[in-house]
């Protein structure tokens, strides 16, 4: 199969192996994705990203996303910024559209080398999350240990956001995997814990579905802002501080959520494609 080039990138420590398959293609299944994502025997990443030719003529490319456990997902905010950075530089454009399974996402450069992505409208109905049964997504009947009464949101992927007095006091490594697989979530869920610092500042940690605790989660930050504003705890624009840094999230008047934050390239390399199936 020969050598396969890749770029290792991250958004606030949420790291990705990015493969450009627009010309030659890159066949991928869950087992191969897991092998590449393995931090001991593979390249290592939270998510494996494959850039493909777009299906929609309005888009510059299609972005396929696999979690470290091999599962394919529809959305990843930090990865969208990273891919947008590559494609914007390649095209010399001031904005472009990336196609995902969650829809079309518009991206543009922002100040200080950051990338802004319109993540679209949050989905707030229980069917859209999805939840297993009809519920008010502003107050979901779910509790485990010190965590209770989450807000559920879909940003192209399901999120349950719990509000706590002190994020550092929560054993997310123990509670996250149990809640991810709770029967309330037919497609599993990302589990966020939020501490409100001020009307314009949120502290967030996330157990990501299929990846575990990550240093940053873009869709989780969007879901946290939406959930906190629905509860009347913050304004429509706030800084969301994650373990790896900070994202600026705005739930605009047009109902779209804008996410702005930095991207970084760690290194570029290649691997023998035959090593991973």
Give the SSE layout:
Elements: E1 3-11, E2 14-20, H1 30-37, E3 47-52, E4 61-67, E5 72-73, H2 77-91, E6 96-100, E7 103-109, E8 115-118, E9 143-144, E10 147-148, E11 151-154, E12 158-163, H3 172-180, E13 190-198, E14 201-208, E15 212-214, H4 218-230, E16 237-242, E17 245-251, E18 257-261, E19 264-272
Parallel strand pairs: 2-3, 4-6, 12-13, 14-16
Antiparallel strand pairs: 1-2, 1-19, 3-4, 4-5, 6-7, 7-8, 8-18, 9-10, 11-12, 13-14, 14-15, 16-17, 17-18
How would you concisely characterize the structure shown here?
By secondary structure, this protein is of the alpha+beta class.
What would you say this structure looks like, in words?
This protein has a 17-stranded mixed beta sheet that branches. With about 280 residues, it is an alpha+beta fold. It is globular, with a radius of gyration of 18 Å. It is about 15% helix and about 40% strand.
